[in-house]
Design brief:
Elements: E1 6-11, H1 15-30, E2 34-36, E3 44-49, H2 54-70, E4 74-78, H3 84-90, E5 96-97, H4 103-113, E6 137-141, E7 143-144, H5 155-159, E8 163-164, H6 167-179, E9 184-188, E10 203-206, E11 209-212, H7 215-228, E12 232-235, H8 248-252, E13 259-261, H9 269-275, H10 284-294, E14 299-306, H11 313-326, E15 330-335, H12 353-376, E16 382-391, E17 398-402, E18 414-417, E19 429-437, E20 442-446
Parallel strand pairs: 1-2, 1-3, 3-4, 4-5, 6-9, 9-12, 13-14, 14-15, 18-20
Antiparallel strand pairs: 7-8, 10-11, 16-17, 16-19, 17-18, 19-20
């Protein structure tokens, strides 16, 4: 064992799991543990798993195996931890298993196998905690769990029903992050637009004011805090309910980025009903049109599933027609994959794998065409971007940045070339003129 106990950490899955990892790491550092960069440097390894779809489960199980081979002492947490028997069937020698957002249980497991060096002292960690993202952006999780019962999803069985964080806690965390130099806050949850429903949107005291625990109030307060500090606020995982319309004026005023991440999942009403999707009866195309009429610059990203049980060629064509009319800016798509415990597994008329693959290819081809067209309209425009990386090693420096329409790691990027690029710093904003566009990315020069 090292003089100071060292914990290795592997974080898999979505940004919500990443926030869980950050909280665990923050507590470990507060208790005096060092965080090891490699398996070999660690006295023990924690693996935060994903268990949403089969590919994620396979990756989690393989990562646990890798940690056992390279280190030998492994604690497992996260969504797959809700199925301990599945983990132990493959890896019987893990030291402990806990489910998602079980922070105290993870720490108890660590204490049992690697005693903590001392009691917590707040000055051992920065005010914003230990972050796994670059210093200039951070995810802010506002709730746990989900009240929906989509037939393809088992997240409620793993993470439980919606539990919203009290709004003073969320706002205070936002302030800590912004004061620590974060230039972009990314709000995440399972259903951001449902925030506060479990608390009946109660008002809470924050400073001298009462603020409702509600989606629009949260967006307004966080947006104001970010704008005061010249930072961005981006909203993820929003469902197309009518009350989401209220956030458009905040976007138009520059307090919230004109960007919505909405998991539409399909365009066929019949398939959406089989999926048991919330808001499946809403006329989403009409809502998108009304949003863009109010805010033409609005960027919308979404994810879709093709090959859902019972999906006919007519259903798939409805999806393509819906996509063509919606003209979404950023799109991801997955082939339907059965998930153990999901009610969709009992649905008849499974789609053959080769047909799923063929539909995925057709969908992505259509989405690529839309993306190409929409990006081309921005050539010649002046925009503000956030710099993620600068490479000055070659003859000509290149900076990689993101615009209002680009969330980190899932969307496109803006490549800045030309005079002055070498002087840019990671985490700063730059004003650029868009000079080129391809299928997913933009080219630019400094304004």
């Amino acid at each position: 064992m090292h003089p100071v106990p060292r914990v290795g950490f592997v974080s898999l899955g979505c940004p919500k799991a990443l926030v869980d990892s950050e909280r665990i790491l923050t507590q470990l550092r507060a208790e005096g543990y060092d965080i090891a960069p490699t398996y070999q440097d660690a006295d023990l390894v924690v693996v935060n798993t994903c268990g949403f779809i089969d590919d994620a489960i396979d990756e989690s199980l393989e990562t646990i195996g890798e940690a056992l081979r390279e280190n030998g002492k492994v604690i497992v947490t996260g969504c797959l931890g809700a199925q301990p028997e599945r983990i132990r069937a493959r890896h019987p020698h893990v030291l402990g298993i806990t489910g998602p957002h079980a922070y105290e249980d993870v720490l108890r497991n660590v204490h049992e196998h690697l005693p903590r060096p001392h009691d917590p002292f707040a000055d051992l960690v920065p005010a914003q905690g230990v972050k796994l993202t670059p210093r200039h952006y951070a995810y802010l999780k506002i709730s746990e769990g989900c009240n929906h019962r989509c037939s393809f999803c088992i997240i409620p069985s793993m993470r439980g029903d919606l539990v919203s964080r009290p709004i003073p806690l969320v706002l205070n965390e936002g302030i800590r992050l912004l004061n620590a130099g974060v230039r972009e806050l990314l709000v995440i949850s399972q259903d951001t637009s449902a925030y506060g429903a479990d608390l009946k949107y109660r008002a809470e005291q924050w400073g001298s004011r009462q603020i409702r625990t509600k989606f629009i109030d949260l967006a307004r307060e966080l947006g104001a805090l970010a704008a005061e500090r010249g930072a961005w606020l981006r909203l993820h995982y929003v469902y197309p309910y009518p009350h989401v319309d209220e956030v458009l004026p905040l976007m138009a005023a520059g307090q919230v980025l004109p960007y919505l991440d909405i998991p539409f999942q399909h365009g066929s009403p019949r398939i959406l009903k089989l999926m048991k999707r919330p808001a499946h009866a809403e006329n989403t195309l009409a809502r998108i049109k009304s949003w863009r009429k109010l805010l033409p610059s609005l960027a919308i990203r979404s994810t879709f599933i093709v090959g859902f049980p019972g999906e006919t060629e007519a259903d798939f064509q409805l999806l393509l027609d819906w996509l063509a009319e919606a003209e979404l800016d950023r799109v991801g798509c997955f082939k339907y994959s059965p998930v153990a415990g999901a009610s969709a597994n009992a649905l008849p008329d499974a789609v053959p794998d080769e047909l799923k693959a063929e539909r995925l290819a057709r969908f992505m081809e259509a989405a690529a065409g839309i993306s190409t067209t929409r990006l081309a309209t921005r050539v010649g425009a002046s925009e503000r971007v956030l710099v993620d990386a600068v490479d000055a090693s070659g003859k000509a420096a290149v900076a990689l940045a993101r615009s209002f329409a680009d969330a980190p790691e899932i969307d496109g990027s803006v490549r800045i070339r030309g005079a002055g690029v070498a002087r840019l710093a990671v985490g700063e904003f730059a004003d650029v003129k868009i000079t080129a566009a391809d299928t997913y990315d933009l080219g630019a020069r400094l304004a």
